[in-house]
Design goal:
The chain is mainly alpha-helical. It has helices spanning about 15-40, 45-50, 55-70, 75-85, 90-110, 115, 120-150, 155-185, 190-195, 195-200, 200-215, 220-225, 235-240, 240-275, 280-295, 300-310, 310-340, 340-350, 375-385, 420-440, 455-470, 475-480, 490-505, 505-520, 525-540, and strands spanning about 350-355, 390-395, 400-405, 410. A 4-stranded mixed β-sheet has the order 2-1-3-4, covered by helices on one side. Strand 1, helix 19 and strand 2 form a beta-alpha-beta unit. The longest helix has about 35 residues, at about 240-275. The radius of gyration is 25 Å and the shape is globular. One of its GO terms (molecular function) is transmembrane transporter activity. Keywords: Cell membrane, Membrane, Transmembrane, Transmembrane helix, Transport. It is a multi-pass membrane protein. InterPro entries: MFS_dom, MFS_sugar_transport-like, MFS_trans_sf, Sugar_transporter_CS.
């Protein structure tokens, strides 16, 4: 096979030509991740703007589902754009993806709200989220493949780790813009100012397209196409042939699924946990997450470079194992240092829902038409709205339900068949008694800034993000090296985006739904812990190390 010329001498740690490739690929990807993360960071505001027809618990969960909808279609974007990337080239494919992403994000910023156009607003929002997801599904595989195919042997982990930084930088950039807008606009940010970060994406789109247009095609792809070796049917070769399909499946279950839940738990779920469970003010929570990202981000490159020496597999597997072993104590520590009043109240005056489990509905109404009127549902709806942790005490065979706050018992009521006015009056009376009992027991409406230990929170969040850097820093090089050049874009994109789009993207929604159903504020962690444990076992036993493979074949 002919030797492919690199853009700069590989004897230097990072040659000028290689820097240009990395910077051009990374800057465009930063802007795309910025676009995608805006929605996740503003989920609580978007819930009020586009899902105001639902009850508060359902509105927030449905806003998270709309966020997850973008992740749900990412594997389809991987298939569509991965096929194009393997047939026509890496460069032109991720030019298309960035245009789709930027335009979709801009349109979110000018979209009318539920109050203006009714149910059409959330429908259009979800449609734009789907377009964002399709675009992102084609972006990552292209950028990672493009950089890896420019990298000299023995440097692929280091080179591709700069692509891994882009996701964190994108989130960091979105947080900076959000915080700046909040600071300047104050209360107006929640009503109309939230649109500004989305509208700004038009400028970022123009910069990104200009940068991407300066790139040349991957040298490995150019040579392969000149020799007539590029794939004419990348989907068939990637997924319909067991020798490659088996590797795709193992890459999903033994690498990207665990990597995804560690990533999304350490960044997104941690942010939601601070704001929605611990009730820490949004600006403070965002600053803490931003600080942790700033401290931990260099470790993407540290672990990417380390993987060139000791291998991709041991670093990713260790990150998954640490998450499994420490997530519960770390999140309990977040509670202890973030809102100790919740912890103290839960110990001194635990809240217990006493009811027949069969009479308790799941507190989620995706279309806003269901009315929670039985005694158990009224209790759990009030507790979920207030973010109050509770346990359940089963009393089978009875329609009655009550809630115990320490030694105080408050009976609920059955609202079925009541006139709206009567239901409202009884509901307000019950809620008033419950709030009074919770206040007496020490349950806070929001975190007391004087009791927040910001230093310890920053340390814990930094540990969580360092786990992210361990699993994410080496993953691009590992995936690139698992598959042959002719079908690399397609083959690596699908397991990456199923892992990150489905296992990771649905993590906040799934975790909060589990918390809402059980009342245990830590129960949502079982989802990332179980998935990370699965990846650790499968990856350790069945996936091969790849750091020394020749990717030119």
């Amino acid at each position: 096979m002919a030797t492919v010329a690199t853009t700069s001498p590989s004897s230097t740690p990072l040659g000028t030509g290689h820097k240009r490739v990395i910077i051009a690929s990374s800057v465009g990807t930063v802007f795309e991740w910025y676009d995608f993360y805006l929605y996740g960071s503003l989920a609580a505001i978007i819930a009020k703007q586009f899902f105001s027809g639902l009850n508060p618990t359902s509105a927030f969960i449905f806003a998270l589902l709309a966020f997850a909808a973008g992740f749900a279609v990412r594997p389809f974007g991987a298939i569509i754009f991965g096929r194009l990337g393997d047939m026509i080239g890496r460069k032109y494919t991720f030019l298309i993806t960035i245009v789709i992403m930027g335009l979709s994000t801009f349109l979110v910023g000018v979209l009318p709200t539920y109050e203006s156009i009714g149910v059409a607003a959330p429908i259009l929002l979800i449609a734009l989220r789907l377009l964002q997801g399709l675009a992102l599904g084609g972006e990552y595989g292209g950028a990672a493949t493009y950089v890896a195919e420019h990298a000299p042997p023995g440097k692929r982990g280091f080179y591709t780790s700069f692509i891994q930084i882009t996701a964190t930088f994108g989130l960091f950039l979105s947080l900076i813009v959000i915080l700046a807008c909040r600071k300047m606009l104050g209360a107006d940010f929640d009503t109309w100012g939230w649109r500004i970060p989305f509208v700004i994406s038009a400028l970022l789109l123009a910069i990104s397209v200009y940068i991407r247009l300066q790139l040349n095609e991957s040298p490995l792809f150019q040579q392969m196409k000149a020799e007539g070796r590029h794939s004419k049917a990348p989907l068939t070769e990637s997924f319909a042939r067991w020798d490659n399909g088996k590797v795709v499946l193992l890459a999903l279950l033994g690498a990207t699924a665990g990597q995804a839940v560690v990533w999304y738990c350490g960044q997104f779920y941690a942010l939601f946990y601070l704001t929605q469970v611990l009730k820490i003010e949004a600006v403070t929570a965002n600053l803490l997450i931003a600080g942790a990202l700033l401290i931990a981000t260099p470790f993407f490159v540290v672990f990417g470079g380390l993987s060139d020496r000791i291998g991709r597999k041991p670093i990713v597997m260790l990150g998954c194992l640490l998450a499994v072993l420490t997530y519960f104590p770390l999140f309990k520590a977040l509670t202890h240092y973030g809102n100790p009043a919740i912890e103290a109240a839960a110990k001194s005056a635990p809240v217990v829902v006493v009811a027949d489990p069969d009479k308790c509905a799941f507190q989620f109404d995706p279309i806003g038409k269901k009315t929670f009127t039985n005694a158990c549902d009224i209790i759990k709806s009030a507790l979920a709205k207030g973010g109050v942790p509770y346990t359940n005490e089963a009393t089978p065979g009875t329609d009655a339900a009550s809630v115990k706050v320490g030694s105080t018992t408050i009976p609920s009521f059955n609202g079925a068949g009541l006139e709206p006015a009567a239901f409202k009056a009884q509901s307000e009376a019950f809620t008033g008694q419950l709030k009074a009992a919770l206040k007496t027991a020490g349950y806070p409406d929001k975190a007391d800034p004087a009791q927040i230990n910001q230093g310890m929170l920053l340390l814990i969040l930094t540990i969580l993000v360092i786990y992210v850097t361990m699993v994410y820093g080496p993953i691009a090089a590992w995936l690139v090296e698992l598959f042959p050049t002719r079908i690399r874009y397609t083959s690596m994109s699908l397991p990456y985006h199923i892992g990150n789009g489905w296992f990771g993207g649905f993590l906040p929604t799934t975790a909060f739904a589990i918390v809402a159903a059980t009342g245990d504020i830590y129960s949502g962690l079982w989802y990332p812990v179980i998935v990370a444990a699965m990846t650790f076992v499968i990856g350790t036993l069945f996936l091969r190390e790849t750091k020394d493979v020749d990717i030119s074949k």
